[in-house]
Amino acid sequence: MILAEKITEERKKNGWSQEELAEQLSVSRQAVSKWESAQSMPDLQKLLRLAEIFGVSTDYLLKDELKSETGTEILKYAAEQSSVRNVSMEEANAFMEWRRKTAPTLAGAVALCIISPALLIFLAGLSDSHIGNVSENMATGAGISVLLLMVAAAVVIFVSYSIHGQQYEYLENERIETAYGVTGLVQERKRGYESTFTRGITAGVTFCILAVIPMFAAIAFGQPDYIITATVSILLLLVAIGVFFIVRVRTINGSYVMLLQEGEYTPEEKRYKKKAEIFITVYWCIATAIYLAWSFQTGDWNKTWILWAVAGVLFGAVKAVMRVRMKEK
User: Fold this and answer.
1) Does residue 39 share a domain with residue 140?
2) What is the tens place of the pLDDT at every residue in 141-167?
3) Which alpha helices (DSSP H) does the chain contain, by range?
């Protein structure tokens, strides 16, 4: 249905004559007649006024493929428009600066979690080999104490980060619309950060790959068990360093991606994440519970860490299946 037909239909639906509609628009009856016969088109101001008095959207009037809107559809359209959050230049700059300053601290907290069992594993190896008069109780007590202190410090950082970041949660979860000039500014900063981002990711991945070399070398040269156990601690240290680099640059680059609504922050991805949020929380809570139960029951802290690698691989596979199922629905 074209614009001329829609004007005629809406006018008749409201029980107005051409003259009555013309009076409301401050135009002549002949002008309305020409609109309805498709001899001419109303200007922008008249289109806005027509949409207002008919109680429809301008999209409905201008787009031929849209059907007549009911009151429910109009309300839905208005709700969709109002659900979009506007982001000013000041908000965008404040968010990018906050992410830049907190990135090293957040990355350090993640690294603390990874390296937290390193001392426990190292002391357990010494205890099993009866080296340095390190008893099993001493190894367990000192190792777990350091582990808990590191995890506690990391949790404090995560909680603080979460509290201060609540004001920006809408950027991650809601549809946004940036003010004039914001998109250009963010794109420029993102381009300027690309080389640093690439170096950080490359360094992080390199550390993670090289982390296994000491352990494999110790096994290949037939080193004693305590040496092999010590290399596991070195592995965790190198992985922690690698993850620090990755998390730091991703946190900063992520601020640009969020504001530009790219990658995992497109409107479609935000809808998916809302649906998957409960599953992700339950999954990692179960993984943590299994890890702690297995570790405390067996005391094999130098072996149970492998659970996190398995959980990570399975998580990616389960998420992929879940995404396909959601799209099918």
Assistant:
1) no
2) 999 999 999 999 999 999 999 999 999
3) 3-13, 18-25, 29-36, 44-54, 58-62, 71-82, 89-115, 118-128, 136-165, 169-173, 182-210, 213-220, 225-260, 267-298, 301-304, 306-328
